[in-house]
């Protein structure tokens, strides 16, 4: 229980004290005390620097300040400014000893105190500031000692659990005994791995598991802070995220949460340390199996496995099935925030952390997903057992990936992700080809975009092939074909180039070209004849038409690139 001004006023030494103003701040906690013998001045009357240091620079949060009416009286503007400085520093309150029998404080000071919610306590003239400060400090130190002893005792309880190899449910039950609330514990994939006896029924409920997963995924994991959320039934939950070395390790879920939890964060911190240690231990134990998993998917995606039977036999334990259609997604993290700083370098542990975050999000959406890391990428295999047409299902996957990107970018780590998605593969032995397609889609997307995107694989069309050629080669070709029209700037040249483009789009049909451009046929004939003369080409020659089509297409590609 923290020391507040309300509790201080109940001490025998404060019997004659009265609350002059700022009653709304009486429950402010007090962590320290200080004394003010003079209001801070910018300079002395003779222009020299102040003889007494400026106390406003020493103000601290939750600090109670003692002074006398003599210091306050006759300094209206300075008093108001100092009160504002106390409020900005989040001080607990101001105690003023009267010059005479009762304090006569300025009305504007009391009004400002009420407005700021900063208590001003008036003391009678016979009160001893030294004794009061000494007693308040003594109470604060006693409370701190009790808090330290309680912290040590709680730490010893949890340390004993860790050394004895206790389960997460044992940790949850011990924490429940300390804060008197049912407790659930989630791992880094937001799966419930421990619960107290009073939370067992909810922990085993599939409906509650699904709802809790969605709540915890969609609430940013702010380190060292309790986050509140409300279930559909109106129950208030507290989510305390656990981090170690900047990595998310799980959460402590406090059920039936109320305002008293804010004062009991210390037990959560102690339990979080033990859970983080256990998570690190489990990660070390899983390192071997994770390596085997990565080796299997590496061989699978590089087409080093000989048959569907071998793929199915080795991959069944990871969730691979030969039913339905499979899409491969290759995702590359562009940037994220690590320990409060933006970084573009990704270590393997950070990729594993990203994959766990993606897995938790997909599980919250009831999407079955298989994930692995490969190089600097996270590779996902999405499977659909529904009879949805491939094009429609691909559209759903793209929307899901875009929502995932938005969720990850808005989370604590601020992940920015670029993804490429393959065409569907109806057999497991076609996954290597799908992986190549997704990688190619990602690579092409990175050439065109700098921010997050989802790029789907498409069989390369003529424009895609053209883009693979060097710029100077393309420029030489289209200038040699289009001649003066290659750099058309005046109105006439632009009209001729536009007419030529529409003519080619309409399969060299003059009538359809005239209709599309709202021109008379003779006008189109005139422009086309002029183009033939300028370019030295025949629009009846298939080779010349092919050159012309290629040149116009190159011109459009280069113009779009320059823009």
TrEMBL record:
This is Helix-turn-helix domain-containing protein. It holds the Pfam family PucR. Residues 8-140 form the Purine catabolism PurC-like domain. Belongs to the CdaR family. It comes from Paenibacillus soyae. Gene3D superfamilies: PucR C-terminal helix-turn-helix domain. Residues 496-553 form the PucR C-terminal helix-turn-helix domain. InterPro entries: CdaR-like_regulators, CdaR_GGDEF, PucR_C-HTH_dom, PucR_C-HTH_sf, PucR_dom. Residues 308-443 form the CdaR GGDEF-like domain.
């Amino acid at each position: 229980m923290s020391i507040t001004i309300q509790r201080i006023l109940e001490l025998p030494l404060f019997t004659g004290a009265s609350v002059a103003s700022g009653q709304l701040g009486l429950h402010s906690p007090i962590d320290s005390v200080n004394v003010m013998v003079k209001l801070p001045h910018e300079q002395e009357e003779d222009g020299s620097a102040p003889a007494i240091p400026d106390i406003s620079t020493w103000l601290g949060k939750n600090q109670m300040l003692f002074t006398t009416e003599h210091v306050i009286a006759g300094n209206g503007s300075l008093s108001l400014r100092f009160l504002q400085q106390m409020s900005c520093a989040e001080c607990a309150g101001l105690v003023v000893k009267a010059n005479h029998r009762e304090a006569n404080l300025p009305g504007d000071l009391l009004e400002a105190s009420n407005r700021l919610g900063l208590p001003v306590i008036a003391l009678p003239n016979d009160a001893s500031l030294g004794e009061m400060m000494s007693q308040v400090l003594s109470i604060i130190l006693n409370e701190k000692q009790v808090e330290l002893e309680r912290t040590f005792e709680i730490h010893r309880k949890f340390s004993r659990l860790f050394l004895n190899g206790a389960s997460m449910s044992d940790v949850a039950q011990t924490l429940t005994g300390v804060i008197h609330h049912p407790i659930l514990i989630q791992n880094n994939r937001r799966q419930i791995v421990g619960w107290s006896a009073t939370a067992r029924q909810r922990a085993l409920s599939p409906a509650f598991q699904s709802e809790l997963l969605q709540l915890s995924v969609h609430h940013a994991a702010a380190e060292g802070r309790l986050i509140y959320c409300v279930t559909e039934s109106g129950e208030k939950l507290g989510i305390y995220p656990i981090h170690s070395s900047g990595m998310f390790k799980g959460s402590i879920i406090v059920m039936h949460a109320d305002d008293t939890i804010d004062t009991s964060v210390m037990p959560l911190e102690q339990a979080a340390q033990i859970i983080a240690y256990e998570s690190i231990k489990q990660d070390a134990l899983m390192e071997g199996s994770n390596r085997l998993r990565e080796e299997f998917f590496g061989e699978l995606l590089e087409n080093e496995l000989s048959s569907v039977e071998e793929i199915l036999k080795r991959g069944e334990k990871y969730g691979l099935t030969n039913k339905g259609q499979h899409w491969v997604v290759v995702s590359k993290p562009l940037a994220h925030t690590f320990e409060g700083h933006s970084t573009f370098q990704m270590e393997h542990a950070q990729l594993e952390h990203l994959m766990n975050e993606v897995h938790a999000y997909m599980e919250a959406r009831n999407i079955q997903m298989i994930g692995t890391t490969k190089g600097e990428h996270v590779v996902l295999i999405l499977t659909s057992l529904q009879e949805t047409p491939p094009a429609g299902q691909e559209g759903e996957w793209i929307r899901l990936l875009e929502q995932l990107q938005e969720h990850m970018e808005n989370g604590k780590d601020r992940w920015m992700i670029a993804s490429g998605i393959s065409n569907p593969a109806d057999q497991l032995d076609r996954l290597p080809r799908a992986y190549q397609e997704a990688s190619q889609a990602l690579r092409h997307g990175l050439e065109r975009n700098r921010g997050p995107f989802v790029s789907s694989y498409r069989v390369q069309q003529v424009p895609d092939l053209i883009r693979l050629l060097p710029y100077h080669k393309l420029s030489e070709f289209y200038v040699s074909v289009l001649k003066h029209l290659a750099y058309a700037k005046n109105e006439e040249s632009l009209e001729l180039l536009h007419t030529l483009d529409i003519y080619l789009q309409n399969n060299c049909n003059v009538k359809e070209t005239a209709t599309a451009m709202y021109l008379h046929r003779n006008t189109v004939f005139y422009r086309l004849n002029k183009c033939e003369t300028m370019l030295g080409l025949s629009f009846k020659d298939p080779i010349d038409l092919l050159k012309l089509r290629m040149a116009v297409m190159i011109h459009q590609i280069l113009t779009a690139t320059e823009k």
